[in-house]
Specification:
The complex is a heterodimer of chains A (149) and B (358). By secondary structure, chain A is α+β, with helices and mostly antiparallel strands. Chain A contains one helix and ten strands; from the N terminus they run αββββββββββ. Chain B has one domain: Cytochrome Bc1 Complex, Chain C, CATH 1.20.810.10. Classes of the chains: A alpha+beta (149), B mainly alpha (358).
């Protein structure tokens, strides 16, 4: 028969191990909810597939207009040749909103001087990718832009 | 006198006073650089005071933030002054903290046993910049909106966790009212709590180790112990500190009065970024660097390369006392690296200021 005093070291290490387990459990039960709390939940939003973007007549050649596309901005431009085109207006560099520059005949981002051509291709400055293109339709005088599936 | 005796029986008043009376501060040709630590602390105190005042009227929501700041500036008596002092004091605090960091580096005050003093100081500078970044969005104006979009999007370059980090900072995928609420929480609760604890540690360490003496002065003292003078902390050093604080207060009051902080236009998430947009002066060097980095560098995303380089610089600064050797040669290397960093940051800032947006 063994008494409690025969393996004090082994018993101490078991107690330490239990204490560590308890401490770890307490910390985990505090930090797990906090970490989860910090990450914002996904708010489902109706993904806009197409939006109206104002009057076609009011958009003169060599000009552009920024319009809401769901939660994000989109840009509709009329090229100097008179053609309507639409792109995502979020710069692919660091998320600024682009604008049309008539003097350059390009889409331009004021934040870090990025430039895109009339096809939305990144042609100067730091942007790493082209702007996402949208389809443009005109019904009567109203422009409708549609996300490409 | 009875009150003093009553307090002395309960608090270690006499011990503290005796310590302060015996405390001496080295006095030499570089002593003037010591005062930047004190002025940074003074400006921090001003930020706490004016920040508390602004909180009485400010409303942290996308619908009301801009209008509440407008109300503070236009309707609340001296509201323009309080806001202007808060904004200017933030700028001076960043300048003073940078001056403190570089003077401590150039005078090699980070050496043993002051490694932790240096490291807590670098963390405090990072916190100061975080205060600047989080506070910048709070008026919810056009410039701050895009600055926050760019600033938070930079976090996306971090491998693996980048996207989660951006969502954590923004409170969602985009900069919205959720971002405002979040950064407000950081600005007025999380950062002040951490900063107060770090300031306490920093001051405790300064008190524990006393003020550092630069190596050149140390050598002189080794040859002739009488060569290095010291002055009593009470009242000599304290009075000099008070003089510096009064001068800073005068500069601050003049700037706040004659160049009051402007509010600009309200943020519009569906307006293009305005031409000539740029961040606060202390982020200009990073802004200008990001502008010149090409989309790809050696096959890697250019933005990632730039951010990684800046991040390594910050980690290098934090660990400086642990990696810097003790020989005069390694001290010279530290001086050259710090001078190069200062030159790069200064040069990039000048370039950003000179660039006229086409």
């Amino acid at each position: 028969m063994t008494t409690g005093n025969e393996h004090p070291q082994a018993r101490r290490s078991v107690v330490n191990w239990l204490l560590g387990l308890w401490g770890g459990g307490v910390l985990a039960s505090i930090f797990y909810p906090v970490v989860r709390y910090l990450a914002p939940p996904d708010v489902p939003e109706a993904a806009a597939l197409s939006v109206t973007a104002g009057s076609a007549q009011a958009l003169a050649p060599n000009s552009g207009r920024v319009v809401p596309f769901g939660a994000r901005p989109a840009i509709v431009i009329r090229t100097p040749a008179g053609e309507l085109r639409a792109f995502s207006a979020t710069c692919t560099h660091l998320d600024c909103t682009v604008q049309y520059r008539p003097d350059l005949q390009r889409i331009w981002c004021a934040c870090h001087n990025g430039e895109y051509d009339l096809n939305g291709r990144n042609v100067a400055g730091p942007p790493p990718r082209p702007l996402d293109p949208y389809d443009v339709n005109v019904a009567g005088d109203e422009i409708t832009i549609t996300r490409r599936s | 006198m009875r009150l003093r005796a009553w307090l002395a029986e309960r608090l270690p008043l006499d011990d503290v006073l005796a310590t302060l009376r015996h405390k001496r501060v080295p006095h030499h040709e570089y002593s003037v650089w010591y005062y930047f630590g004190g002025t940074t602390l003074f400006l921090f105190a001003i930020q706490v005071g004016t920040g508390a005042l602004l909180l009485l009227y400010y409303r942290p929501s996308a619908a009301e933030a801009y209008e509440s700041v407008q109300f503070i500036v236009a309707r609340v008596p001296f509201g323009w002054l309080v806001r202007s002092i808060h904004a200017w004091s933030a700028n001076l605090m960043v300048a003073s903290a940078f001056a403190h960091l570089f003077s401590v580096a150039f005078l090699h005050a980070y050496r043993r046993p002051r490694e932790l003093t240096w490291m807590s100081g670098v963390l405090l500078l990072v916190l100061t910049l975080a205060f600047g970044f989080t506070g910048y969005l709070l008026p919810w104006n056009e410039v701050s909106f895009f600055a926050t979009r760019v600033g938070t999007d930079i976090a996306a370059t971090v491998p693996l966790v980048g996207h989660a980090l951006v969502r954590f900072l923004r409170g969602g995928d985009d900069v919205t009212g959720a971002t405002l609420t979040r950064l407000f929480g950081f600005h007025v609760a999380v950062l002040p709590a951490v900063a107060t604890a770090l300031v306490a540690l920093h001051l405790l360490l300064v008190q524990r180790h006393g003020m550092s003496v630069p190596p050149s002065v140390e050598r002189r003292a080794a040859a002739d112990p009488g060569a290095v003078r010291s002055i009593p902390f009470l009242p000599h050093f304290l009075l000099r500190d008070l003089f510096a604080w009064t001068a800073v207060l005068a500069v601050l009051a003049s700037l706040a009065t004659f160049y009051p902080s402007e509010l600009g236009a309200k943020a519009d998430p569906f307006a293009p970024a305005p031409a000539g947009i740029r961040p606060e002066w202390y982020f200009l060097w990073a802004f200008e660097t990001l502008k010149h980095v090409p989309p790809t560098v050696a096959g890697l995303n250019g933005e990632f390369v730039a951010v990684a380089a800046m991040g390594s610089g910050a980690v290098g600064a934090l660990l400086l006392p642990l990696v810097a050797g003790r020989s005069p040669r390694s001290r010279a290397i530290v001086v050259w690296i710090c001078a190069a960093a200062l030159l790069f940051m200064g040069g990039m800032t000048m370039l950003a200021l000179r660039t006229v947006t086409p």
